Structure formats: C-alpha cells, structure tokens
C-alpha cells in the first residue's frame, strides 16, 4: 500500500473504531467512506452495511443502490422514497478495493464477472446461489428493473470502480483481453446505460475523491455578466451577477450527471420535491416563455466558497456550498433533463440565473452569510428533547466514561464541529431514544418501525431516570454493533438489532421480562422514576460483572434471533425491516428469553451450589 494512503487509512480506522480489523478490511471501509461519502455521510453503521464482507463476494467488496440520491437496503425503502412521484432516479455502484500498488488483470476480471453474475441473477430472478448480501443487492436491482416505468431513464445508470493505491493510470490493464471480454459481457446484458465504463483508480484518484468531501475542487465555469462587490474583513472577494443555465449546471452536477457531493450541507431546506407549490412555480417559469424573466422572478443562488480564482471571465471555484437556492438548483437540474431541453439544448444558453458568490475561509463569516440569506435550520423534535436538563446531565455522565467509553452528542454540530472521538462511540438523541425504548422498556418493535414516535414531546424514553440507565442502553447497542463488526455470519440479522438489544437486556436484568410482557410504558416510567424499582435493576455498566454479563448475553440473543427468523434466513438473504417490525416478533422473542432463563435455572439448580442468573 502507498505509504501516504496507509497513513490516511490508519487515521480513518482509528476515528471510526475499525482499527481491530485487518488492514485490507480497513481499506475497504475507507474506500466506501470516500467513494460513497455523499450517501453515507460518515455513518459507521452505513459504511459497514455497504461493505460486503469477504467470503463468497464474487470479487465485489462494496455495492450500493441509490434512489433519488439516497442509499437504500430494502425494496420497502425504495417505495417510501418514490411514493407517487413521477420523476425518480436510480443508480447502482460496484467497487473492488485492493491495497496493492498495481492493477491485477485477473482480479479485475474476477470482479467484473461478479458484477455480471449479480446483474444476470437480478434479471432472471435467480438469486438462490448468491451470498446473502449480494442477494440483497440483486433483489434491489430486480425491483428497479421491474418498476422501470417509474424512473427517468430506461436503462439503469451504473458506476464500476476498481480502486488500488497504484500511482499509474491503469491504462495497460484496461487493454487486457480478459478484462475487455469481461466488461463486454456486462455491456451486452443491456441493463446499464451506454455511458457505463470501468474506472481504474489509483492513489491520485482516491486522494482527489477524498478532497471532494471538502466541497468540489477547481470547478470551471464562465461568469461574464458580473459586478464585483468590495471586499470587507473576513471576505476575500464577492461577486454578483447572472450565469447561464448551461454554466450553472457545471456547479451543480458532476460528470455523471449527479448532484455534486456536499454542496447543500449548509442548506437544510434542500429539495422539497417536484410537487411542492414553490417548486411547481419555478418549474412553470422554466418550461414556458416566461423563462426569459427568470432573473426577476427568482432570487437565484447564493454560493459561499473557500477559493475563487479567474482568468478573465473563466472562473475556478473550490470548496463551495449553495447556502440559498437549494430548491431552485434542483428544479434547474430537473428541467435540464426534461424532454423540452433534450429537444432544444440551446434553451440552457438563453436562461440566466442570478448568482451571488462570496469567498471566505472564516467560519464565522460563512455562517453569517448562510443565516443572512434566509437559511433556516430546522428544529426537530429530538433537538427539543436534547435541550432538556436531563439530556445535559446524560451528556455529562457520558463524557465522564473515560477514553474507552461512549459520548452523547446532545447537539447536532455538523461535520465541521463534530465530537473529536471515534464515530462508533458517539450517540445522537435519536439513536439514544431507540436504545432506551428497546433495552429499558422492551419496545423493540417501536424502535425499529416507529422511531419518530419516540421523539415526541412527553415520550416515555425521557424521564427522571438515573443517568446510568441511558448509558446502559447505549452501551448494549454499541456492544451489539461491535459484535456484528467482528462476526460476519451474523450481519444478516442487523435489521433485528433492537430486538436483539431487548433480549440482551432481559438476559442481564431478568426482572425486566415481566415488565416487557405487560407493555405498559407509562407504568414502567413511573416505576423507573421511583427508588424501589431502581434498586431491583442493574444499570451501571462500569460494574465488571454487568459488563461481562452483557458480553455473554449477546451471542445467546443472536442465537435466539437466528432460530426465530430462520424461515426468512433460509431464503439466503439478510433480514429486512418488514421482516422484523411486527410487535408479534417482539412478544415472541421475549417469551423465548424467559424460557431460556428457566431452562438454565433448572439445569443449575440440579448442580451442587447451583443458582442461575439473578
């Protein structure tokens, strides 16, 4: 591995708590983090989900299906994203990640054969021989193919990357007869768009991809009609003017036609959909002769950039954000891909869009510009929960858990101000809500299927409970995630994580079982706010005994889940949300934990000095 890339991988692995894994697996996750950043947003759990995990992976290390700009893992998620929208996009991404500093034609061919196999299996609905996680991908591709009329494009856009740490361009490997033959077979399936190409990436491309996380770099566009605004303290330069539709698209879309990664991170209102009243008016203006009045009818875009250089009217912009005009941007992209523009591309040249560009490296100035241009940060229900005194107490308790403990990110800080701590050990309010619901109240079905209910004012997950209760809940989830990471065979159970957490909690605190079965959350809340029940339950995971009990209970809970969901697992795929969200599963699983504990008690009572769990 190239020494500089190795250093970056090590830093990434430490930050995301992947450093116990072999370097090859760390590299796979690093590549997923870099190449799919716009979809994963640095979420450790999502990074793990797109990495296929060795074994019979057909040479494919990473795979993702993207619908309307969001990554999906189940067909039901596609349905939710599409709804009744007429215009939808789909994209499939396959990646092979090798630490080698060379391009191996045999391995490239094997990888391409894997892509061909998955695609063929999806088209023939013959996925039985695929490994579970490849089967998941094939079933998603099959869903997109079957519902092709609901998508913008007849063939599916697809990107294929073979990533190494090589310092060469891979052109020799591209000419290898075996590689060319393998790639031709994928093309001949006629499933993916004509623009499909095999991209062999080395250290330079990998580095450039990571740079894109800081905003697009050196994007060239023409800005003839402009007026310079005098610079002030903290502002290096500023311009206001109009830019043609064709040139504005260069700022909004990458070479594949996708919205550029990260350019709307500071614009929370983003895209409210084609049927939003404001967007309908924008679309009407663009599609009629009124488009020549666009500069007067629309406020356009406000862009704040870290760097802006020019040679005459040709500008190069880097590290930029569209802080105002997110909906206008998305409507422009939709219109540019319409039949109207397809028939007459010159319409892009005759459309003029108002643009204000401000250049500053001062975070304070950047923030003030964003606020001043009507960027409103949405306040969610979980943000209100996090503002309560109890949440502040919980945050303080987590912070005192030492270097090997967890942290509670009470306030969403954004990527630039995130807690400097391994990401897998940082818990947000929404995640904490689900953890408490499952492990303390036995509401695992609600944690899986209705997490928004837990964010409502007065939700049972927050109360005058001991702060260690919240840490206990988060710790169980953390340990289960760690177990998934170390035990590849169990990854197919991930959708049942909160059921597993409920069972682990019941194993280590058997007195919770009756409360879980009663299902009276209000009664449980009152009891947990009283001293009597607190003394009956053990929540302090700093106790070595409880910590070990949690570790021991996880494999037992996994075993029960595997047996219970065996019918689905025999289909050779991972569990999905629809497979596990029912309260019936929650009730049956807790019954099985109780049965298991009674069996253990019966066995140990027959032994001299036997006792069983407390």
TrEMBL record:
Residues 264-515 form the Abortive phage infection protein C-terminal domain. It holds the Pfam family AIPR. InterPro entries: AIPR_C. This is AIPR family protein. It comes from Trueperella pyogenes.
């Amino acid at each position: 591995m190239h020494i500089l890339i190795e250093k970056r991988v090590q830093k990434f692995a430490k930050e995301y708590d992947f450093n116990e894994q072999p370097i090859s697996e760390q590299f796979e996750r690093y590549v997923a983090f870099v190449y799919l950043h716009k979809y994963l947003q640095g979420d450790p759990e999502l990074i793990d989900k797109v990495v296929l995990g060795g074994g019979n992976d057909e040479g494919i290390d990473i795979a993702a299906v993207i619908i309307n700009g969001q990554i999906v893992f189940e067909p039901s998620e596609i349905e939710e994203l599409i709804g009744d929208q007429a215009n939808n996009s789909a994209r499939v991404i396959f990646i092979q990640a090798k630490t080698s500093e060379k391009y191996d034609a045999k391995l490239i061919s094997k990888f391409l054969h894997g892509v061909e196999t998955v695609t063929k299996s999806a088209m023939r609905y013959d996925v039985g021989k695929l490994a579970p996680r490849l089967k998941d991908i094939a079933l998603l591709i099959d869903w997109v193919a079957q519902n092709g009329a609901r998508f913008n494009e007849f063939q599916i856009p697809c990107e294929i990357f073979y990533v190494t740490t090589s310092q060469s361009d891979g052109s020799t490997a591209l000419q290898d007869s075996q590689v060319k033959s393998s790639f031709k077979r994928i093309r001949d399936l006629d499933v993916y768009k004509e623009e499909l190409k095999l991209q062999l990436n080395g250290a330079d491309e990998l580095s450039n991809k990571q740079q894109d996380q800081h905003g697009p770099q050196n994007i060239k566009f023409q800005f003839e009609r402009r007026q310079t605004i005098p610079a002030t303290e903290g502002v290096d330069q500023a311009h206001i003017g109009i830019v043609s539709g064709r040139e504005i698209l260069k700022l909004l879309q990458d070479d594949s036609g996708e919205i550029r990664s990260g350019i709307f991170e500071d614009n929370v209102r983003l895209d409210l959909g084609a049927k939003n009243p404001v967007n309908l008016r924008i679309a009407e203006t663009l599609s009629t002769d009124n488009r020549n009045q666009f500069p007067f009818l629309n406020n356009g875009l406000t862009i704040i950039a870290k760097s802006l250089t020019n040679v005459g009217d040709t500008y190069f912009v880097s590290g930029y954000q569209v802080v105002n005009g997110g909906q206008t941007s998305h409507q422009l992209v939709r219109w540019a891909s319409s039949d109207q523009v397809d028939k007459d591309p010159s319409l892009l040249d005759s459309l003029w869009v108002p643009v204000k560009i401000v250049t500053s490296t001062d975070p304070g100035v950047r923030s003030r510009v964003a606020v001043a241009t009507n960027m409103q940060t949405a306040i969610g229900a979980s943000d209100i929960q996090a503002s309560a005194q109890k949440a502040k107490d919980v945050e303080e308790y987590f912070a005192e858990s030492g270097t090997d403990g967890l942290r509670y990110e009470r306030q969403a800080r954004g990527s630039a101000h995130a807690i400097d701590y391994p990401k897998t050990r940082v818990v947000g309010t929404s995640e904490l809500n689900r953890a408490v619901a499952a492990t303390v109240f036995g509401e695992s079905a609600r944690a899986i299927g209705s997490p928004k209910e837990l964010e409502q004012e007065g939700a049972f997950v927050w109360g005058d409970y001991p702060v260690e209760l919240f840490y206990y809940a988060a710790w169980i989830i953390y340990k289960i995630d760690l177990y998934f990471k170390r035990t590849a065979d169990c990854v197919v159970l991930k959708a049942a994580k909160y059921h597993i957490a409920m069972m682990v909690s019941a194993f280590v605190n058997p007195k919770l079982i009756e409360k879980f079965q009663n299902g009276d959350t209000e009664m449980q809340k009152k009891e947990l706010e009283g001293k009597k029940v607190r003394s009956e339950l053990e929540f302090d995971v700093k106790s070595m005994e409880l910590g070990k009990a949690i570790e021991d209970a996880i494999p037992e809970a996994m075993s029960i889940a595997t047996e219970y969901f065996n019918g689905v697992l025999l289909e050779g795929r991972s569990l999905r949300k629809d497979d596990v969200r029912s309260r019936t599963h929650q009730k049956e699983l807790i019954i099985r934990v109780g049965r298991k504990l009674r069996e253990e008690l019966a066995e140990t009572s027959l032994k001299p000095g036997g006792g069983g769990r407390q």
